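During the no-cost extension, the postdoctoral fellow (Dr. R.K.) reprocessed legacy sequence entries with the updated structure-token encoder. One reprocessed record is reproduced below for audit purposes.
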Amino acid sequence: MFGKLRLLTSARFDNTVRMIRLTLSQMDHDTIAEALDDPAVDERAKRKLMAIRMHDLGVPHGMIAKTLNISDDTVTNYLKQFQTEGVDGLMDNRYYRPTSQVEDYIDRIKQSLIDEPVATAKEASARIEKISDIRLSETQTRRIMKRLGLRHRKVAGVPGKAEPQLQLEFLAEELLPRLEEAKKGHRRVFFVDAAHFVMGAFLGMVWCVSRIFIRTSSGRQRYNVLGAVETRDHDLVTIRTTASINAMVICQLLMKIDAKYPGEPITLVMDNARYQYNREVMDLAAALDIELLYLPPYSPNLNLIERLWKLVKSKCLRNRYYEDFGKFKGAIDDFIVGLNGPNREVLKSLITERFQILPIPKT
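Re-encoded structure tokens follow.
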């Protein structure tokens, strides 16, 4: 008897739902997909939306009820509610709005976020609400920002006294012509700078289940590396020392480069550090017929070897612990030596002539 009752109830339910056939528009599809992917939408509302989506896909209504662990009558109520109220009516959060509702304001939103960048999705959501009077969740806001071409990037520092116009003129009139000569095999251009690696903690980001702790070294021992990287063959010439970098060390580098490339026109591009911009270094360079090309003040972005020092820190130092200074130096030495051997391809991909010209920063 109970089995017959269940069959009758099921048949009555199937007859009822056959009378309801929903047709979803593309906007309905997009809004439902967006809401299902949004953690700000509660589970009850998502269950309603999933029922509508499964109905649209032709899933039998009894199977919908079983899959979502709801009663047959509840499925029918969801369908009826959608017929009369649409997607908005199914949302328990009456403040929820699909991102499509801000389309009329999208240009103003984009310009506002470009003119005054925000640090968090919460700030961006408040900005969008101020412009459109439509409140979006943080997930929706992130989706809009990505669609507009915005990415969450780390802010870069700009030397306060840098002169972008002077850099641009130097690049066009001095640096690029010499690099063009180098490409043709008529000159060798080296970018020169010193790095001072301190034996300490270089902590970075990692993907992990829980926060990872690593031991850190005590003391402030430094390992100084004076380097010159060449742009055509990507040779790397270095002098590595625990002593200070001074004019004498610069002169040693000049003689080392001259001995390795005898008779070739050579240009060294370097900044205006005192130990490089002095009479002793200039006189030796003149005697060796080596051109010293000094960068405009505050122009680390035009010195390609700066990229190499960042790479050394990333590969040798970040999230690493060394028991003693000898192992610390050894790791740096091994990596640098490898750049003239098996890891030369790393330099080729790193030392390219894509220079960054600093924009005039906003105050």
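The chain has a mean pLDDT of 86. The chain has 14 helices and five strands. The remaining legacy entries will be reprocessed before the final report is submitted.
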